[in-house]
Write a structure and sequence with these properties.
Largest sheet: 5 strands, parallel
Distance between the termini: 11 Å
Strand content: 15-25%
Number of helices: 19
Structural class: alpha/beta
Helix content: 25-40%
CATH architecture of one domain: Alpha-Beta Complex
């Protein structure tokens, strides 16, 4: 079920339009993305690399750079401990290549999802000590690894934590929180309460990028050298579903430009194996084509394979690895469909469907797919969803949330039933004993304050705009708002009383409907709908008119261009 609401944010749209030489509709779209004030609007429209914040604003950056600079000069052995997802792999790549450029003696350990679990653990710490490691640098993990890092210090190692996850805390009965940091020599994480860095929403790879930027600057390298890592920081920002606001939007915008002319053989081959051209890559392709392939190796095999792809210098090796990752991702897709169908069956055939927080135990599901399946469950029911699986080390799971429910904070309230957990308001991971599964589910629901209103998907309409208002120059100006993604969503327009004419279904899966959309005055425009074509035709059959949500584009085909709208939803 959907609820459509029109954005009611106010501003002098005509004045903004005149000031910045844009259409008033564009001014309204910018205001709807909470960009307020002349300086903020100018930055939104024109910000480039010069607007990125200094890495030295991050708490402990000066200390970390000094320690690492001395370790590199002394030839000490440095080990990077990353993570097996897209953010962890790209973070590891940035740090490893950057340290090598600085002349460091560096190696890498990416935990195995099955045998090691998430992030740094005591086995990895002790292995590092046995291998003669002097310094451990974590990326995309470590902030919650207090006992593991304490063990590393006992063994005489230096530890630098770079992470972006929420800071663990204990909460007293009066609601007071005591935040807990690992006993590392330096902790770089913008989420720290006393960190002065002005933008808190960085992914792990951008934190790693910032560390390397500081080290390059300390070493006297040319400032532009660090930008070779921008395309990887952009891939991680999109792949880890960070908000495309502020600095993140600039990183993705500039990173895409570099990705369009990438010289990385691994990325070139991964793009080629999907029959695309580098210059065509946008946020969508990272999120739904390239990113899942980089994630698939850490889910079903080893993330070392994805790292090897990024590091490949030989074209033949890159092509082989890209093909392997694509095949792994195809297997992952099939397994995900099966797991998702099972999750829906369990919910519908039990009392779970009445819960406000859906906790689904799928004992035989591959643990690496829990987060993806949780996301599918959340999409169908618009409720927070956690999928748990049985593993050799007990039960593990992943959760995906909705805007009105901070999953990490709610897990903190149930910490007594968990052996390990971490994450963000919108996503989290956890481990627990199997005998605690039912009480964990029950307690999460007892503590929940969600209401029926929270379970209705709310779609915010930017502008109720007649299709007759669409012009080529307006569509061109909308390019100024890109890249679109989480936190900077593609604009949503709406119009009532639209008739659809001449519907035709295309595609081997019958999932593309082409038609003409006509308003009350007879103005028509080409339209397309992506989804179940037969269901669409059945829904509109016999109806005089529809209310539609749409997005306008220029359709280019065989040298011809024409205005077209994509119908995103309809009532």
């Amino acid at each position: 079920m959907q609820k459509w609401v029109v954005s009611a944010k106010r501003a002098d749209f005509q004045k903004i339009a005149e000031e910045f030489h844009i259409d008033p509709v564009i001014a309204r779209l910018i205001r709807n993305r909470d960009v307020v004030g002349e300086d903020a609007v100018r930055e939104y429209l024109t910000a480039g690399l010069e607007s990125l914040h200094s890495p030295w604003l991050l708490k402990d950056m000066d200390r970390a750079a000094e320690i690492l600079g001395e370790k590199i000069s002394a030839g000490r052995r440095i080990r990077i401990i990353g993570d097996y997802d897209i953010d962890g792999v790209t973070s590891t790549y940035i740090l490893k290549k950057g340290f090598r450029r600085l002349g460091a003696d560096v190696d890498v350990k990416i935990p195995d999802r099955i045998t090691d679990g998430y992030g740094i653990n005591e086995h990895l710490v002790e292995q590092a000590a046995e291998d003669g490691t002097d310094t451990i640098v974590t990326c995309d993990n470590g902030i919650a690894a207090l006992p593991q890092i304490a063990r590393a210090k006992e063994l005489g190692m230096t530890v630098i934590v770079t992470d972006h996850h929420e800071i663990p805390y204990d909460e007293a009965e009066d609601g007071t929180r005591t935040y807990k940091l690992p006993p590392a020599d330096a902790v770089i994480n913008p989420k720290q309460k006393d960190c002065p860095y002005p933008f808190k929403g960085l992914c792990g790879a951008v934190v790693a990028f910032k560390l390397m930027q500081a080290l390059y600057e300390r070493a006297g390298f040319a400032p532009e050298e660090i930008y070779e890592f921008l395309e990887f920081a952009a891939i991680a920002t999109v792949g880890d579903i960070m908000d495309l606001k502020g600095e993140n939007r600039v990183i993705v915008k500039e990173g895409l430009k570099r990705l369009h002319r990438t010289e990385n053989p691994g990325l070139q081959e991964l793009i080629r194996v999907h029959h695309m051209e580098p210059e065509d890559i946008q946020v969508y392709h990272i999120g739904f084509v390239l990113g899942p392939c980089l994630n698939a190796s850490g889910r079903l095999d080893t993330a070392v394979r994805a790292l090897s792809l990024l590091e490949a210098e030989d074209r033949e090796d890159a092509a082989r690895l890209a093909g392997d990752l694509k095949a792994l991702n195809e297997s992952r897709k099939e397994m995900t469909v099966q797991g998702t169908e099972e999750a829906f069956r369990v919910i519908e055939e039990s009392s779970l469907k009445n819960d406000s927080v859906l906790v689904v135990f799928l004992p035989d599901c591959h643990e690496s797919l829990a987060g993806i399946i949780a996301g599918r469950v959340r999409e169908r029911y618009h409720k927070p969803a956690i999928v748990l699986t049985r593993t050799a080390d007990g039960v593990k799971g992943s959760g995906r949330s909705i805007e009105s429910y901070s999953m990490y904070e709610e897990l903190c309230r149930c910490r007594e039933y968990l052996t390990k957990f971490g994450g963000h308001p919108m996503a989290a991971g956890m481990s627990l004993a199997e005998e605690n599964v039912e009480i964990f589910r029950r307690k999460l629901n007892e503590y929940s304050t969600l209401t029926e209103e929270d379970f209705v998907e709310k779609i915010v309409i930017d502008v109720p705009m007649p299709i007759s208002y669409i012009r080529r120059d307006l569509i061109a100006q909308m390019e100024l708002l890109q890249p679109f993604g989480k936190g900077n969503e593609k604009p949503v327009f709406a119009q009532k009383n639209i008739r659809v004419l001449g519907c035709r279904i295309f595609g081997k899966n019958r999932n593309v409907v082409k038609m003409q959309a006509a308003d009350e005055n007879g103005y028509t425009v080409d339209a397309v709908y992506f989804g179940d074509g037969d269901a669409f035709l059945e829904s509109v059959k016999g109806r005089e008119s529809l209310s539609i949500l749409y997005y306008p584009t220029i359709n280019r085909y065989q040298g011809r261009e024409n205005i077209q709208i994509t119908i995103q939803s309809f009532l």
